[in-house]
Amino acid sequence: MGTQLKKISRYGMVGFYLFAGANHFINPEFYYLLIPDYLPFPKLINFASGLVEMALAVLLLFDRFKRWAAYGIIAMLICFIPSHVHFILIGSCITDGLCVPEWVGWIRLLLIHPLLMYWAYTNRN
């Protein structure tokens, strides 16, 4: 990938995760319902998730930390898998929230999620 394209990709990822992380604080109720019932302290999990997303995004800006930030994003995305599975198990519909066809939940889990991991992996160097 060309140097300019790599920069665009990295800054795009920074913006994506800053926005996603901030959304945990702007719309926390949305995320509470995505956290599986078997996990305790959904408010803490949501807070930590948003904070980690934003921290890793900021670390991507620094050459010294971008490798660790990229691997951190991959690890974070792996930690989010139970939430995606939970969303599918509840019929891909959150009461008074996001309702999509079940296949959309599967696409998100099996296609989009791995692509986000790959995107992080390509931004490690």
Describe this structure in words.
- The chain crosses the membrane at residues 12-32, 44-62, 69-91, 103-121.
- Residues 7-81 form the Methylamine utilisation protein MauE domain.
- Its main location: membrane.
- Keywords: Membrane, Transmembrane, Transmembrane helix.
- InterPro entries: Methylamine_util_MauE.
- By secondary structure, this protein is mainly α.
- It has one domain (3-122).
- Helix content is 73%, strand content 0%.
- The chain is built from 6 helices and no strands.
- The chain has helices spanning 3-26, 28-32, 42-59, 66-79, 81-89, 102-122.
- Helix 1 runs antiparallel to helix 3.
- The model has no long low-confidence stretch (mean pLDDT 95).
Please describe the structure with a list of short key phrases separated by commas or semicolons.
125 residues, mainly alpha, 6 helices
Give a brief description.
The protein has helices spanning about 5-25, 30, 40-60, 65-80, 80-90, 100-120. The protein has about 120 residues and is mainly α.
Structural class comes to: mainly alpha
Task: State the total count of DSSP E strands.
Answer: 0
- What distance separates the N and C termini? 11 Å
Helix content: over 70%
- The number of distinct structural domains comes to 1
Shape: globular
Number of helices: 6
Biggest sheet, open or closed, and with what strands and sense? none
